[in-house]
TrEMBL record:
Cytidyltransferase-like domain sequence ranges: 11-175
Family listed: Belongs to the NadD family.
Gene: nadD
Protein name (database record): Probable nicotinate-nucleotide adenylyltransferase
InterPro entries (UniProt xref): Cyt_trans-like, NadD/NMNAT, Rossmann-like_a/b/a_fold
Metabolic or biological pathway, per its Swiss-Prot or TrEMBL entry: Cofactor biosynthesis; NAD(+) biosynthesis; deamido-NAD(+) from nicotinate D-ribonucleotide: step 1/1
Primary role: Catalyzes the reversible adenylation of nicotinate mononucleotide (NaMN) to nicotinic acid adenine dinucleotide (NaAD).
Enzyme class: transferase
Reaction(s) the record says it catalyses: nicotinate beta-D-ribonucleotide + ATP + H(+) = deamido-NAD(+) + diphosphate
Entry keyword set: ATP-binding, NAD, Nucleotide-binding, Nucleotidyltransferase, Pyridine nucleotide biosynthesis, Transferase
Length: 201
């Protein structure tokens, strides 16, 4: 049963191209450690400047995100960034989520160690600490270090160690191209979906 107090919402943003066990394990461990009520996976829309054919169409990334999160009762997925026209910014996403979940929702934006070092460069970055806290998950190859985080964000950022899974979407895409197995690197339903739709070939 949910304890009293504001709803604690974890927000896991990503390209999810494709979603994999690294994302899922990080979200699960953080859900547990931070006593979150829910972790919401938000796949990004089509990146505006990157005309990158490495990125599967949003509809497919959305479907894979739904498949990967469907069987965990405290995971869910939101298409708000996929549906948004034009550029999509974390700040706007969080404001929109607060309208849906309630203005007093406590938001925890979950990122990997690689992404957290860059938040100060994000759009409307200076306003982000007013609307969300950040949880930076360790990730193999990226040393977690408060020094790397812009001073403005240090107060609202938690660093956490998650079991290291040296998995990245980039590596999974390469393996598919080379005809190598991707079994157990991502949920079976996602693996099947990728082959059925000939993604990343
Ligand atoms: P790509 O290789 O295409 O960049 P990715 O594996 O980094 O893909 P993203 O969709 O870019 O996946 O990641 C979404 C978020 O999940 C980012 O904040 C990223 O740092 C984090 N993340 C990705 N893989 C892991 C992992 N193995 N452990 C912890 N965090 C991860
Ligand atoms: Mg990445």
């Amino acid at each position: 049963m949910r304890k009293k107090g504001p709803f604690r919402l974890g927000i896991m943003g990503g390209t999810f191209n494709p979603i994999h066990q690294g994302h899922l394990v990080a979200a699960e461990v953080i859900w547990d450690e931070f006593k979150l009520d829910e972790v919401l996976f938000v796949p990004s829309g089509r990146p505006p400047h990157k005309e990158n054919d490495e990125i599967a169409p949003p509809e497919h990334r959305w479907m894979m995100t739904v498949l990967a999160t469907a069987t965990n009762e405290h995971f869910s997925a939101s298409p708000i960034e996929i549906k948004r026209k034009g550029e999509s910014y974390t700040y706007d996403t969080i404001l929109e989520l607060k309208k849906i979940y309630g203005e007093d929702t406590e938001c925890f934006f979950i990122t990997g160690a690689d992404a957290i070092a860059e938040i100060s460069t994000w759009h409307k970055a200076e306003n982000l600490p007013e609307v969300t806290k950040f949880i930076a998950a360790s990730r193999p190859g990226y040393k977690l270090d408060m020094e790397k985080i812009h001073p403005r964000f240090r107060k609202c950022t938690y660093l956490v160690e998650v079991p290291a899974l040296a998995i990245s979407s980039t590596e999974i895409r390469k393996r598919i191209k080379r005809g190598q197995t991707i079994k157990y690197l991502l949920p079976e339903a996602v693996e099947k979906y990728i082959y059925k739709n000939h993604l990343y070939q």
